Amino acid sequence: MVRPWFKGIACLMASTMLLTGCWDRVEIEERGFVLSVAVDEAAEKEGSADEPKGLQQFEVTYQFIIPTGLMKNGKSGSSDGSSAYFNITKTGDSMFGIARSLAAEVSRAPFFEHLKLIVISESAAETLGFANVLDFFIRDHEMRRSVRTVVSKGQAKQMLSVVASNEVIPAEYISSILENSRKNAEIVKKARIGDVHEYLLQKQSFVLPQISKINDKEADLRGSAMFNGTDNKLVGFLSAEETKGLNFLHDKIEGGSVKIKWNDNVSNFEIRESKTTLHADVKDRNRIKFHYHIKTEGIIAELFDRPDLMSAPVIKEMEKLIEEEIRRTAEKTIHKVQRQKKVDVLLLRSHLEKNHYRMFQAIEPDWETGINYFAKSDIIVSVHANIRAIGAINKSERP
Where is each Spore germination GerAC-like C-terminal domain found (predicted)? Predict the structure, then answer.
């Protein structure tokens, strides 16, 4: 007969097998924090003659954080970002292979859980295949779905060397600008890699923020890059103005301004609220009609003239000019994406799939190819603007 105390000891010893603790713990001092990655097309293939080689050749730049450099800059108030980060560039035909090869060159193994930004060059997106570039980032278990993705005009790695006077790390600087879509309607609202993954799975055309380098301390994120959902290829770019029109159509306006011509000068209308609704008439599938209705409210932010803003006819005239300008911008965007590029970055496909599912199933194979129902559709834009405040000054001086 087994004694009770022996049973207790046996259970206690067995329970210790469940107490694994932090078996995979890695001290924070031993991690190499990667905050940003830039992907370019490599000029030459590398590797031995015997090993398998892919058709694509990547040049990948990783931006590592130096924690001691961050502390130093934070205490001194300096903006010398050279001591807060370092960049390392590697080439190869496999994103995963390149990432793992870094462990042989840096003292701290690369750690991607704090990755904030992926910059892909225009040439890499066109030549290497956009989905191929993102495959590693989507699959890897360390990657978060909130990583932001942008497309660069020019070399992507150059963007990771732009350090603003008020920032110490390029990735933080670029990420901060993406937040400014609340103030500038010409910037695409930040695109998470999780959103991009959904677009790729649904074969939905989409846009990503565009970035270009102005100088060593400035970058410009106005404008956007267009991708065809059929083959995931980069097909072109939208200008800053066209991107503003797209934001209106997407109901993504959180702020910004509308400039109108007033007499011999200009006036600026600051957007405080904006709401866009979309309706589709699918009675004739060969001529589907989409109607956008944009309703916006705001204030007169700037005026270089002497109109009586207490006069109702003057306010009505200004509202009419604002409506015409918003409509012109939106229609310019529609012409670019529907008539010239013929890619549905307007997300009309998604609207039909949600609201007219049966009809859309019948035309889906020819939505952006073949018959191209998207290009044959009629798209109408109507705008209603409301000036709800005129500011503190009723009449400005004429220069």
Answer: 223-391
DSSP conformational letter for 335:
I
The terminus-to-terminus CA distance of the chain in angstroms comes to 107
Residue bearing tokens 């103030």: 183
Query: Which CATH number describes the domain made up of 240-399?
Result: 3.30.300.210
Residue spans per domain, the chain = 28-238, 240-399
pLDDT in tens, 330-364: 999 999 999 999 999 999 999 999 999 999 999 99
227 has pLDDT over 60: yes
Q: CA-CA-CA-CA torsion for 202, 333, 125, 223, nearest 10 degrees?
A: -120
Strand partners, 299: 270, 389
This prediction has a pTM of 0.86
Pairing of strands 31-41, 109-111: parallel
